[in-house]
Structure formats: structure tokens, C-alpha cells
Specification:
This is NADH:flavin oxidoreductase/NADH oxidase. Its cofactor is FMN. Keywords: Flavoprotein, FMN, NADP, Oxidoreductase. Helix content is 28%, strand content 13%. The longest helix is centred in the middle third of the chain and has 21 residues. By secondary structure, it is α/β, with parallel strands linked by helices. It starts with 47 loop residues before the first strand and ends in a 25-residue tail after the last helix. Bound molecules: flavin mononucleotide.
């Protein structure tokens, strides 16, 4: 052999199918020797290590319900949808909210992880993602009083020929409105199910379901778990005075409202030794001050969120994913670019020692890089922009002038990125 090693399209070692090996990994900087511009790598493309696991960059796929599961089971839609991100350079993928019990689904077509039969569908996606060098986790949740609702495209179709007069998925719509539970018997809004206030056995059942789901996550091989404690679903419902008027040890004082979510976090943490994230809504976006003149908390907001994160730190949570809203139907959200970033920044200022992610109308690579550079967050979750442009990581590399590895198969599309340039000033 005149040149030493033969020129073989090397396979990914240990993968269940033949996939060409990417070296370096997709979405990581190429060597400075070949690309002098990589002397300065934007923070977006710098790794982040959490609990000994290194995320190759800080562009992460936010969890997004696809309303496409078959009685909770992932299908080939999920493999193609999520697999497409694994091949396009993101640093992590978070699988959509997946319910730990059947009645905790938001819609009948939501993803689920309440049964062992859900394991193979997820495993196929995780194995594919790993074969392409991309970490993948899952968001575990329970929709509480916002369960048994119609998927958005079922409620109102895009052709605008059909609009349901209600949000509830009734029995005839494959729903379970009679089994919807929440901290209190307070409906989210007109047209939503009327929840039953959780009883002692519900507390135990749901808590155990979270722990059982973690055991399935281990078998599947997920790299991280995110607990869904945001957007007006069960765990958020407990912490907010708008949805929790219990008079027992789970309602009233802030300490009481935090009790059940913290217990679930504690149980999950004990069962899971890889990175654990918690997504919270840092405000209900309700009117007036978070605390009334009488000293009582009126709704959920940033000040209580800071206390909550302090408690999470004591339980060894690894990262807080900062979102907002979803628990008050009259919420008035100023939808400007990066509208939730000030909340992430607020949490980071209060707790500089725990990583925080920002999400929400972050669409521009320079905007995302500025959020990281100014220390407002440690990584960025993107949702809708990644639906529009699954290649966003490569596009960001192009915009920020850094040479990042595309997948072998897509290299010819990214010659603009794979061109050596001088060291930037
Ligand atoms: C189709 C769709 C489904 C979503 N599903 C979830 C979900 O399962 N869990 C969650 O926490 N947020 C969910 N979200 C919210 C996103 O993760 C994200 O926080 C929000 O869209 C704001 O980010 P963006 O401006 O980048 O889209 C969803 C958003 C969209 C567009």
C-alpha cells in the first residue's frame, strides 16, 4: 500500500447499520491548521460539560410535541424528524414532552413512556442519534389539568375549514376528560377539562410513574432527562397560586407549593445519575406585582422561581431550562426577540453556579452568541427556528465565520463554511 492505510469510508464502530464515521463529530470545529479562522471559536460552538457528559456545542433542540405518537409510541416520523437534527450539527436533542402516565398526555397523540412497549421506538432514535455523535435526552412530564386536549392542528386546521368550539378532547375524540387531575379542581379556561383535585393515591401513583419512566430512560440509553415543570402542566400547576388553592401541605405557602415538584425532582435525581435538567416557567405573565401588599404571592414569578432553583440546587439538579407562561389563559406576553432571556439572566444572577439555558424567539446566530457571551445563559434551546431550518447549526457557522464539520454526506452543500480564511481580528 503506497500511502499506508487504505482509503476506506470508515463505519461508525458498534453501530447497528453501516453509517460513515464523521471525524471530527458533526457540529464541531475543524482543525485550526486547515482553517485559521477557527483560532476564535464562538461560544455557540464550544463544548459544555455537565456531570461528566460533554455536549459538543451549545445549540440544542428544544422539546417539541409532534402529536404523532401511536398510543404513546414513537413512529418513523420521530426517527426522521429527530434523526434529521442528529445529522445536522446540533449539540443536543430533547425529545418532546413524554407522559409518564396515559392520562398525563396533553393530547391523545402525545408521546408516552408509561409502558415498556415504548422503549424500542425511542431506542431506535437514540441509537441513530448516537451513531451520528449527537446526545439525546427526553422531557418527562404530566399535563395535569391541561391533559386530554385536542392537538392544535385538530382544533383548527390550516385550511381554516374546521374549528373546534372547545379545547377538550372528549371520549369520542379519543380523550379522557373524566380522568384529568390537577392540584385543585380549577379548570385552565373555558372549554378545557374540569380537573379533579389530586388525592393521596394520585400523589403516589404519579410520583412512582416518574421513577418508572426513569428506569425506561436507562434502558433506552438517553443521555439526559429534562423534567417538564413549565407551561402550566402538572408541576407548574402545583407551584402557582393561580392553579393551586389546596389547604393541605401541598398548597398555600411557597414551601408547601414547592413540596410535590421537589419530591418528584428528588426521586428522579436519586434514580438517574446522568444530567438532570428542569424546565420551568419563570413567570405566569399575570397582571400586577408577583407579591401583593399583604405579603402574599399572587401568582408565580421570577422571585419565587429563584427560591425554587435554590431548592433544586440542593437536590443536585444539573441545569435549569428557563421558559415562561402557559398557566394563565389571559397571559400577555411581549413577543419580542429573546423575550424570555431576561428571566434566564435573572436566574443566573441569583444562582451563578448552576447552568441555565435560554429559549424563546432566538433565531439569529449573532443574537444567540451575544446571549452566551454576555453570560445570560450557558446554552440555547431553539424550537420553531429549527423547524423552519433544521440546518441552523451549519447556517450559524456560516454567519459567525467558523469552520464547523457538516455530515460527510452534506459537505458539498457547505463549501462556504469549508473554505479556509485568515485569523479574525
Ligand atoms: C410545535 C411545538 C411543540 C412544542 N412542544 C413542547 C414540549 O413538548 N415541551 C416544551 O417544554 N415546550 C414545547 N414547546 C415550546 C418550545 O420548546 C419553545 O420553548 C418555544 O416554542 C419557544 O421557543 P422558539 O421561539 O424557539 O420556538 C413547543 C413548541 C412548538 C412550536
Amino acid at each position: 500500500m503506497p500511502n499506508g492505510e487504505p482509503f476506506i469510508n470508515k463505519p461508525v464502530p458498534g453501530a447497528d447499520q453501516y453509517y460513515p464515521l464523521n471525524d471530527p463529530a458533526i457540529g464541531t470545529p475543524l482543525p485550526i491548521k486547515a482553517y485559521p479562522q477557527n483560532a476564535k471559536v464562538p461560544l455557540l460552538f464550544q463544548p459544555l460539560t455537565i456531570r461528566g457528559i460533554t455536549f459538543k456545542n451549545r445549540i440544542w433542540v428544544s422539546p417539541m410535541c409532534q402529536y404523532s405518537s401511536d398510543n404513546g409510541h414513537a413512529t418513523d416520523w420521530h426517527l426522521v424528524h429527530l434523526g434529521g437534527y442528529a445529522t445536522r450539527g446540533v449539540g443536543a436533542i430533547c425529545v418532546e414532552a413524554s407522559s409518564v402516565t396515559p392520562e398525563g398526555r396533553i393530547s391523545p397523540e402525545d408521546s408516552g413512556i408509561w409502558d415498556d412497549s415504548h422503549i424500542p421506538g425511542f431506542k431506535r432514535i437514540v441509537d441513530f442519534s448516537h451513531a451520528h455523535g449527537t446526545l439525546i435526552g427526553i422531557q418527562l412530564g404530566h399535563a395535569g389539568r391541561k391533559a386530554s386536549t385536542l392537538a392544535p392542528s385538530v382544533h383548527t386546521n390550516a385550511a381554516k375549514t374546521r374549528r373546534a368550539p372547545k379545547r377538550t378532547a372528549d371520549i369520542e375524540d379519543n380523550g379522557w376528560p373524566g380522568d384529568v387531575v390537577g392540584p385543585s379542581a380549577i379548570s385552565f379556561a373555558e372549554g378545557y377539562p374540569d380537573p379533579k383535585a389530586m388525592q393521596a393515591e394520585d400523589f403516589v401513583r404519579i410520583e412512582e410513574a416518574f421513577v418508572a419512566a426513569v428506569e425506561r430512560c436507562k434502558k433506552i440509553g438517553f443521555d439526559f432527562i429534562e423534567l417538564h415543570a413549565a407551561h402550566g402542566y402538572l408541576l407548574h400547576e402545583f407551584v402557582s397560586p393561580l392553579s393551586n388553592n389546596r389547604t393541605d401541605e401541598y398548597g398555600g405557602s411557597l414551601e408547601n407549593r414547592l413540596r410535590y415538584p421537589l419530591r418528584i425532582i428528588e426521586r428522579v435525581r436519586k434514580a438517574w445519575d446522568k444530567p438532570l435538567f428542569v424546565r420551568i416557567s419563570a413567570t405566569d405573565w399575570a397582571e400586577g406585582p408577583e407579591k401583593g401588599d399583604n405579603g402574599e404571592w399572587r401568582y408565580w414569578g421570577l422571585e419565587q422561581s429563584k427560591v425554587y432553583v435554590g431548592e433544586m440546587k440542593k437536590l443536585d439538579v444539573d441545569l435549569v431550562d428557563c421558559s415562561t407562561g402557559g398557566n394563565w389563559d389571559k397571559q400577555d406576553i411581549p413577543l419580542v426577540p429573546g423575550y424570555q432571556v431576561p428571566f434566564a439572566e435573572g436566574l443566573k444572577k441569583a444562582h451563578p453556579d448552576i447552568p441555565v439555558t435560554a429559549v424563546g424567539l432566538i433565531t439569529d446566530p449573532k443574537q444567540a452568541e451575544e446571549i452566551l457571551q454576555s453570560g445570560k445563559a450557558d446554552a440555547i434551546f431553539l424550537a420553531r427556528e429549527l423547524l423552519r431550518n433544521p440546518h441552523w447549526a451549519m447556517y450559524a457557522a456560516q454567519e459567525l465565520g467558523v469552520a464547523i464539520k457538516p455530515s460527510n454526506q452534506y459537505e458539498r452543500a457547505w463549501m462556504s463554511v469549508l473554505t479556509a480564511k485568515p485569523v479574525p481580528n
